[in-house]
Amino acid sequence: MAKYERLTYLLITRDPVHIGAGGYRLGRVDNSIVREPGTGVPKIPGTSLHGAIRTYAAREYENLDAAGQKHDKVDKPEEDPVCYTFGYLAKPATGEDQRDAGGYAGVANIFDAQVLLFPVRSAGGPLWVTTPSALAGAGVTVAGSPSNRQRDTVLPTGDLGTHINLGWLNLRVGDKVTVTWPPNWDAPEWQAIKDKVVVVQEGLFSHVVNSNLEVRTSVSIDPITGAAAGGALFTYEALPRATFLAFDVVIDDYRDKFPKKNQTFRKNPLPKNEGWNSSKDVINAGIDAIEWLGIGGMGTRGFGRLGLVGTAIATTPVV
Fold this sequence. Notes:
The chain is an alpha+beta fold. Helix content is 18%, strand content 29%. The chain has six helices and 17 strands. The strands form four sheets. Strands 1, 2, 5, 6, 7, 9, 10, 11, 13, 16 and 17 form an eleven-stranded mixed sheet that branches.
């Protein structure tokens, strides 16, 4: 009988976050960010999260050799919590080809982080925009939402009057709704905005988000003249500060051999003295470090930090 553990994390962008889509030009910017193909809504790919979480967890464990694709420098990778969680290639024996050395797949599956609440300016101050499906996908419930409301009507959690602008869009305000947040996510960040949330229809969400992304302009400086280099001006977009995102991690511990016994003195303990006792501890260590070290591009220009707002919600179905 295999046991699976699903962990849902809630993050907030402490800085703008730029996860590049490859550098091609898209409309008003030169360097665009990754988007969901079907909706056009930006996201943080699971591949980006996986790489950052693994690298930062390896730093916390003081074993950076466990962070990459090759693990031939890791002594006994099967006893390293990071290698066990994310997978590894076993060290080949003397004279043995690397391809024959074997290894194991990781036990942690990290999925894309989807935008849950997106900040937009309005005449009444900042508001956080979301949709019923985005909330439902993260385990958040909405009470009072009619099924037949018009497309140009938003449903607020607070008092907004009869009309409100979301950036350049002017929309009608419908009846209030009640958003019930999971208890483990009831953090100060949510308390600060819980009366400033508006629920829009799915067809509007992409337009609102893409019209209110942060766009910056940068230029390379000529080291000789100290002036802008010719032809080096470029623009790029990013998810703005105070964007809430949710993502899932599914832990499939098919081996059931997490190396709890290998807690040597040179390895860092985790904050709060929790120890390296499970793959969940490894994931949490990497996520905690993202708030300091960031994710994505432009990290040296003030981009990339993500804060953990809610503790993981765990369900453990047995199949």
